Amino acid sequence: LDLRHYLDDELDMHHSSASLSVRARVMRQMGNTDSHAIWMTRKPHTPVIEALNAIDTWLVHRKENPESGRPPELADACFDEGGQQIAAGPDVWDGPWNGRPEGACLSRYPAFGTSRTVAGGPVSGDVFKCHLQSVEAALSGGVYGEVDMAPWRSRLAEVFPGGVCDYAQGDAGRPADLP
After folding, report:
1. Which helix (DSSP H) or strand (DSSP E) does residue 27 occupy?
2. Distance CA 84, CA 105 (A)
């Protein structure tokens, strides 16, 4: 259970995109998110006891029914600062990060991008050594999206003489024997 306060608008380092990063990794590795639930809320609401009780229920349920899925009380959800549930269900955290229509929780608690995702990196955040491409290739390839970086071409080349990340090529440092 990924439980966190929504702190993106406070520019706190415990940003909500970390929940989506974990979700993307779990989905890639397991093929589903049956073992991952996201609960997000605003301060002062802190549902730690509710979360621990829900996890206990889940574990007891799994022990009795090993093939069963997540119990309903552990659905993805979001809450307001008073503890009122805003939304719950399998699609509440969907959005641009996974190519689906924006869910109610992501709409209420939007995930800010990281420097890596803004530069084209995956939401999973697990490219630790990127392949490089020239600044010229990045500019002509649309790496910066709708942002016109042409006025900063020479500065980019000065700051990144070896090139900028080409996230489309995956992780250059990942051992070949890892899935």
Report:
1. helix 17-30
2. 13
Running DSSP on this structure, what letter comes out for residue 112?
Answer: P
Alpha-carbon distance of 32 to 61, in angstroms, equals 19
Find out whether 124 and 25 touch, Cβ atoms under 8 Å. Answer: yes
Cα–Cα distance measured from residue 58 to residue 1, given in angstroms and rounded to the nearest whole number? 10
CB-facing half-sphere around the CA of 71: CA atoms within 13 A: 16
Please write the tens of the pLDDT for every residue from 22-44. 999 999 999 999 889 999 999 99
pTM above 0.85, yes or no: no
Q: Does residue 94 contact residue 103 with C-beta atoms inside 8 Å?
A: yes
pLDDT in tens, 107-136: 999 998 888 887 788 899 888 899 999 999
Buried b (16+ CB within 10 A) or exposed e, 93-107: bbbebeeeeebbbbe
